[in-house]
User: Which sequence fits this backbone?
């Protein structure tokens, strides 16, 4: 393949802290626009889109220098971007390593162009104390990308007692969440946000009114045709409204995970306009698929929040365009074949997402002209990095040399059996995609090459 | 005269031509049923298995007798009496039956889409005898056969379906089938028991019993599953019966020659009064006979399809969807 010849002296490029040059690529950077929690004036990066050489010295982005280079990459006709940052994924480790583990998940992330990922705490056991945070970080030392654990809001994520957020913060968590479920009650949410704020932590909430849970897909014409129990879109809207009101009442930040409905997006838009400290993410499946995809009873399309109506899909795209939705997260959720390729109503919720995120965004958002390449870098790198307050998302000299090189012209048919992830539960098998990750570099080290 | 697929999954999948073929064949099968000798040899040497994960008396017996009248070997498995209770997956159970050389598997399952999941994975033909809240195609076909016999056809016919619409696979299959054949369908029930966007199916959602019944040629009651009360979907049996039940005074709103149908089993005095069920307008008992005839027709036509397409042991013709 042509791409393998693009990288000279590959051996050296696999070394940590290496120096090198990426020549002739279209280098795209973006300024963060998201309000950084507890630091509203903070910004990272700048909007910049130009063909130039990018230099790496000792694992960091550097000003131009004349070598010697450990490696050289020919990036002509390719995009060179800050490594993507995913603030919402599931690595299943500890406890469900048959689905994914920290190393396999990180390898999958690298294959998708991600160089920093924040993993949700719904593992077995739950990441609700410093020992498990340390376990994750220790195992992640050997990972292809940076791994940042998110701790639980409540012990065992059961919505009763607050988890030891202070100790977990000292051990290295970057946020707290009971993801998989909403923070159970308004009282827990209020207390959780207050207590988290003592340690500079933001609550990331999975928005789904508990009394309206239990369906298998969006409530609507498709669920009626299939005879499936529906999850009404208002289940999400209610908790989005609740969390916005609590954030406003406390004047504290809150982050809303995987937003999927038109009404939620309008609630967030209104809240931001009046100064509420709310940030939000969505996922590629909410702008590329609708509930109609479930009609074949194919369990690979089961996800929570469920795939919604066409008008919701269009609202998600509008929300990304106008900045109401700050970040694009994957909600990478690996599951075994025996948990997905079964009766629809028994299939687990969730789909793998690292390896298709860029291509889906390019195909559905950039190629049609809705977003620019800079906008895409903003929602995939600058904003999530600013939210997590980690050293990532920028190509300014001195930043870690975390970068993603992609071919925006590559067209191909996605084959889920080739996924790097341990699980293959992608619903996009056979989809025609445009945009392909060519190489991923973490701290100057080549961690993925197509 | 032929079907287009090896499986009968739902009325959504059947074409107008297929429905007509099934109803015409069923009319002939009814003649066999009413003749002195019910034994034929159309399915001689074929094996038909009923795999039921939910309780059923009439559907299962109806299929079993249909298979026997056609000369097939019929065997039954129920969820409680098989390895299902040991935790075997649906796929493994069905694959086992497939490899015992079953030609047709008639299945009922509490999960919507269970037959759709199995169909592309097995060589045997799958006949859906009710899946979750999705479809019950042979019930719709037997209802349609009964309607056709009584009313002569479907074009412009006004069919009212009353009761628990949300949990009913019967109403879904009837809506799809009747609309395809040119009938109009109106539905009525408590707002808590009407599924989202049902109007999208083409049925008219009525907001009163009067709106539903006025001018109706056919009035169909649906079984109320009494456990729904526990989920606070309606307050009491008494109130349900009072506002949503079919009875003799209410049927006066329909056309004088309207027929009254119910898929059974009935809760007399709840969704339908005993007097109405036993009235001269009621065709509930005749529906049962139509049921055997329609199932004979489906087994007969599927067997024809299998022979024409040379389908045999362990062969799946259709690509795996998933």
Assistant:
């Amino acid at each position: 393949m042509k791409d393998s010849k693009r990288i000279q002296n590959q051996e050296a490029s696999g070394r940590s802290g290496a120096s090198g040059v990426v020549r002739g690529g279209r280098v795209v950077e973006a300024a963060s626009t998201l309000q950084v929690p507890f630091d509203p004036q903070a910004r990272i990066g700048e909007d910049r889109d130009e063909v130039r050489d990018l230099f790496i010295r000792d694992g960091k982005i550097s000003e131009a220098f004349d070598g010697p280079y450990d490696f050289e990459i020919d990036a002509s006709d390719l995009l060179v971007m800050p490594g993507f940052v995913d603030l919402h994924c599931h690595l299943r480790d500890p406890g469900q390593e048959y689905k994914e583990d920290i190393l396999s998940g990180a390898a999958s992330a690298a294959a998708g162009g991600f160089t920093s990922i924040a993993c949700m705490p719904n593992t077995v056991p739950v990441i609700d104390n410093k020992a498990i945070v340390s376990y994750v970080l220790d195992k992640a030392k050997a990972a292809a990308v940076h791994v940042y654990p998110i701790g639980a809001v409540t012990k065992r994520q059961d919505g009763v007692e607050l988890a030891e957020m202070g100790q977990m913060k000292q051990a290295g968590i970057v946020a707290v969440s009971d993801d998989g479920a909403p923070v159970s009650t308004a009282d827990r949410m209020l207390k959780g946000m207050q207590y988290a704020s003592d340690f500079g932590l933001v609550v990331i909430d999975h928005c789904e009114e508990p009394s309206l849970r239990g369906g298998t897909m969006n409530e609507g014409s498709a669920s009626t045709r299939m005879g499936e129990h529906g999850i009404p879109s208002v289940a999400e809207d209610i908790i989005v409204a609740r969390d916005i009101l609590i954030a406003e009442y406390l004047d504290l930040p809150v982050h809303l995970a995987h937003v999927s409905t038109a009404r939620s997006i309008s609630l967030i838009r209104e809240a931001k306009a009046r100064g509420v400290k709310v940030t939000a993410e969505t996922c590629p499946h909410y702008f590329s698929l609708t509930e109609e995809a479930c009609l074949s009873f194919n369990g690979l399309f089961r996800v929570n929040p469920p795939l919604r109506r066409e008008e919701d899909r269009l609202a998600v795209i509008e929300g990304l365009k106008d900045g109401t939705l700050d970040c694009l997260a994957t909600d990478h959720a690996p599951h075994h074949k025996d948990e997905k390729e079964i009766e629809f109503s028994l299939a687990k919720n969730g789909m793998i997402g690292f390896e298709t995120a860029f291509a889906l965004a390019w195909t559905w958002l950039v190629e049609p002209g809705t977003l620019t390449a800079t906008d895409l870098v903003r929602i995939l790198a600058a904003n999530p990095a600013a939210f997590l307050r980690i050293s990532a998302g920028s190509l300014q000299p001195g930043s870690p040399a975390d970068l993603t090189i992609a071919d925006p012209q590559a067209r191909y048919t996605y084959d889920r059996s080739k996924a790097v992830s341990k699980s293959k539960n992608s619903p996009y098998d056979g989809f025609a995609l445009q945009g392909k990750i060519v190489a991923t570099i973490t701290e100057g080290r080549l961690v993925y090459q197509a | 005269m032929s079907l287009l697929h090896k499986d009968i999954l739902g009325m959504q999948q059947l074409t107008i031509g297929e429905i007509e073929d099934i109803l015409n064949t069923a009319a002939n099968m009814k003649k066999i049923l009413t003749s002195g000798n019910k034994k034929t040899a159309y399915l001689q040497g074929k094996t038909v298995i009923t795999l039921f994960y939910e309780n059923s008396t009439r559907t299962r017996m109806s299929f079993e007798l249909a298979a026997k009248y056609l000369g097939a070997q019929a065997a039954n498995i129920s969820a409680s009496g098989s390895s299902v209770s040991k935790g075997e997956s649906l796929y493994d159970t069905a694959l086992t039956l497939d490899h015992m050389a079953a030609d047709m598997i008639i299945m009922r399952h509490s999960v919507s889409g269970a037959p759709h999941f199995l169909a592309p994975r097995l060589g045997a033909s799958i006949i859906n005898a009710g899946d979750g809240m999705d479809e019950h195609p042979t019930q719709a076909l037997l209802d349609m056969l009964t309607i056709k016999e009584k009313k002569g056809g479907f074009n412009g016919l006004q069919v009212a379906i009353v009761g628990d619409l949300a949990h009913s696979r019967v109403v879904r299959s009837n809506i799809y089938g009747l609309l395809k054949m040119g009938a109009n369908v109106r539905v009525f029930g408590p707002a808590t028991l009407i599924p989202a966007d049902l109007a999208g199916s083409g049925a008219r959602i009525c907001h009163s019993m009067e709106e539903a019944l006025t001018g109706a040629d056919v009035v169909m009651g649906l079984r109320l599953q009494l456990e729904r009360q526990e989920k606070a979907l309606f307050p009491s049996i008494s109130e349900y019966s009072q506002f949503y039940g079919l009875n003799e005074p209410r049927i006066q709103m329909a056309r004088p020659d309207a027929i009254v149908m119910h898929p059974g089993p009935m809760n007399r005095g709840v969704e339908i009064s005993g007097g109405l069920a036993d009235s001269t307008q009621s065709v509930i008992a005749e529906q049962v006979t139509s049921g055997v005839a329609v199932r004979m027709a489906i087994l007969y036509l599927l067997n024809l399809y299998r022979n024409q397409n040379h389908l045999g042991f362990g062969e799946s013709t259709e690509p795996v969807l998933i």
Chain A has a mean pLDDT of 96. Chain A has two domains: 7-80+399-449, 83-388. Chain A touches chain B through 24 residues (CB under 8 Å).
